[in-house]
Design a protein that fits this description.
The chain is mainly alpha-helical. 81% of the residues lie in helices and 0% in strands. It is globular, with a radius of gyration of 20 Å. It starts with a helix and ends with a helix.
Length: 378
């Protein structure tokens, strides 16, 4: 996925030179992902989770192969990128709640924190390798080869989930119900939960003004005056920080105040975003964006663990899906916000303002929502 996101965003920015066009990617994600995540949560609670994951990955191979062929024929246009982005957003997000919910079926409850953290670390390792491969390929073989490599990488994603040995269908709760009714039941559970609403609100408030990864080509061009190779380097540095943050969570496994850990990490994220917005060279930007990855991974791993620990299996897929609705919606709104505001008011001003707003949101959550700051790991 990381390779595809890099390739499509870099190609689009090189083709159009517009931050608004990059922001449109976030708008597309937002429109198609919101209903998909909710429906994916219902599917994760009703279907074979392994087969659902495998099925959603087939589309990645097919569509990325199509992009490679169009690029090779010099027939690739922005609307192709937007169309593929829309379809892959739907299919990937339909399988996302199943991937998260399956974790609790594979490992015992006592090891859940380690499993969630390992999942995040594995994702971040892939997000390190992909930008490095991207940087090497974009400077030597070009964007067409990158699309082809991304398609090839999708093949194991189809096969490997089917090899997992575990009961992977949620316990039947005795009620079939329609999809919308089951979505509503999931919403009712999340709304009445003592912790999840606060986490979701904070995640939404922070990321909708600070999510920058999708618009890194614009940031690199206008803030650092560098080229596509720098996009790959910064993405890899951010992901390397994510791995370090995941390892930090493992070392902090005995720190029971997981709610406070989320607050500390997210507050630091906002402060670091201000520093990133003020940087003007790769020497400063690389370590800062790496530190952003550390704090983001700590917060992400802790939030996911809290969701898994405090949710029964028969509703876990839907609870995870609402958590992902918040996260993905915030990321997409953040892409739109950063892309549009950078075009209108400057990249530096946008990032610095986003950092300050993020810190205000965290402090407000800290003060107003007691369930988050009081949560203790069992």
């Amino acid at each position: 996925m990381e390779m595809r996101l890099l390739a499509t965003s870099v190609w689009l920015y090189q083709e159009t030179g517009s931050g608004v066009q990059l922001g449109v990617l976030g708008l597309i994600h937002l429109i198609v992902q919101f209903p998909s995540i909710l429906y994916g949560g219902v599917l994760a609670d009703r279907l074979d989770r392994k087969r659902l994951i495998a099925f959603t990955q087939v589309s990645s191979f097919v569509l990325l192969t199509m992009l490679a062929l169009l690029s090779a024929a010099d027939a690739l246009h922005p609307w192709h990128i937007y169309g593929v982005t829309a379809v892959l957003s739907v299919t990937s997000i339909l399988g996302s709640p199943a991937r998260s919910a399956l974790t609790s079926n594979v490992v015992p409850r006592t090891h859940l924190l380690h499993a969630v953290t390992s999942n995040v670390a594995t994702f971040e390792i892939g997000a390190i390798v992909a930008p490095l491969v991207f940087t090497g390929l974009i400077t030597t073989l070009g964007i067409t080869v990158i699309f082809a490599v991304a398609a090839a990488v999708a093949v194991p994603s189809v096969i490997l989930p089917l090899m997992i040995r575990a009961q992977n269908i949620a316990s039947y709760d005795g009620e079939d119900g329609k999809v919308l009714r089951r979505v509503w039941q999931g919403f009712q559970f999340v709304r009445s939960h003592p912790i999840l609403p606060g986490l979701l609100i904070m995640d939404l408030g922070v990321n909708m003004v600070s999510f920058f990864r999708q618009v890194l080509p614009l940031i690199v061009d206008r803030l650092l005056r560098a080229g596509p190779g720098a996009v790959g380097a910064l993405t890899a540095a951010n992901s390397f920080g994510g791995v370090a943050g995941s390892l930090a969570v493992l070392f902090l496994a005995r720190y029971r105040s997981k709610g406070m850990l989320v607050l500390y990490a997210t507050l630091a994220y906002g402060a670091l975003l201000i520093v990133f917005g003020l940087s003007s060279s790769m020497l400063v930007a690389v370590p800062v964006i790496m530190a952003l990855g550390v704090t983001d991974a700590i917060g992400m791993s802790s939030r996911q663990t809290i969701v898994q620990l405090t949710t029964p299996d028969d509703v876990r897929g839907r609870a995870v899906s609402f958590h992902e609705v918040s996260a993905e919606s915030a990321n997409n709104l953040g892409t739109i916000y950063v892309g549009f505001m950078s075009q209108q008011f400057g990249t530096r001003n946008t990032l610095v303002t986003g950092g300050f707003i993020s810190m205000i949101v965290v402090v407000a959550t800290w003060v107003l929502i007691r369930g988050v700051r009081r949560f203790r790991y069992p």
